[in-house]
Fold:
Amino acid sequence: MTGASLRARWRWGVVVGGTALLCAIPAIVAAVPVPGSAIAVATLRARILASAGVAYQGYAESTADLGLPRLPDLGSLSRLLDGVTDQYVWYRTPARWRADTLTAAGESDVYQAGQTTFLWSYSENLLTRVAGGQPVRLPRASDLLPPALASRLLRLASPADHISRLPSARVAGVDAAGLRLVPASPVSTVGSIDIWADPVSGLPVEVKIIARGASQPVLVSKFLDLSQRRPALATVSPRPAPGVDRATARLSSLNGILSGGQRHPWPPVLGGFRLTAVPDALTDVAFYGAGLARFALLPLPGRTGSEVVSAATSAGARTIKLPGGSAEFVRTPLLTVALATPSAFSGVTFLLAGPVSAAGLQRAAGGLLSLIASAR
Structure:
């Protein structure tokens, strides 16, 4: 073998060896033990709740298996709560960020620009401007990003809920400290919520929600790639290309649509659950309960209510006769949904949904139907 051949083989050996080393780096890094963090659970919780000002950008994946039936006109929500959602995110401040959700048809983007939200749909070639605040709306993919999800869940927790430390874990290159939240209420369907966050900045990097009595999480949201670096302002600003269709929507225009224009004075207590504060901008939605044992109550008028009941029945909902009417119940490991229909009059179906036990929601639905019957 000539010297030239030996040198050529040596060069190729270096290339192959270098390539193998590069491919092995992620596995090597993952195998390095994660140093434990001595941060106290109260300090970690406080840093997570104060992390809204931490800038970051990255790629996150959310996997949900809530087992909800597909409801009319809510296909995107059904996919969000039962499937895998991949999204890129660029976050400067709470008022300036962008999240791009990847879909088979392209992508759907959310831009937050001050008090205005922009929704971009690639498949529809449409940019929608949503003016004003949105205290109540359907969930979006960006709500499942680890920082948003972790902060919201911790703020929902009641003082009686138990919080403890978890072993540290390496997530997207971050040696993250963990905590576990266990609801104190026996009617909550949430078994535990596990959160891992950067112990220095408090930025959450992974969230797991486990239903009561289950061993595997029904929802996991985690970063696969992350940099705590502030993105450029131009990156988080919507810049529609020529020819893009535009529309404007206001939250106030939604007020009253859910109930067909009717107003419902909600009772202060239903089935032992107390009425909590209702956002001023959407008075047709009520919330009952506290901590991680609460549910939403809203009226579905006419055809909308009938279609939702039909879809729930087709999905195997259980119908229960109650004083003053009947209700269809859909029970999943984490969420319980009830569709209560009064027998005293037709035209409105009441939807009750939340992470509460079927027995608790049945008491609430029965109390609502009984109140309606006695008022007729």
Summary: The longest strand covers residues 82-93. DSSP finds six helices and 20 strands in the chain.
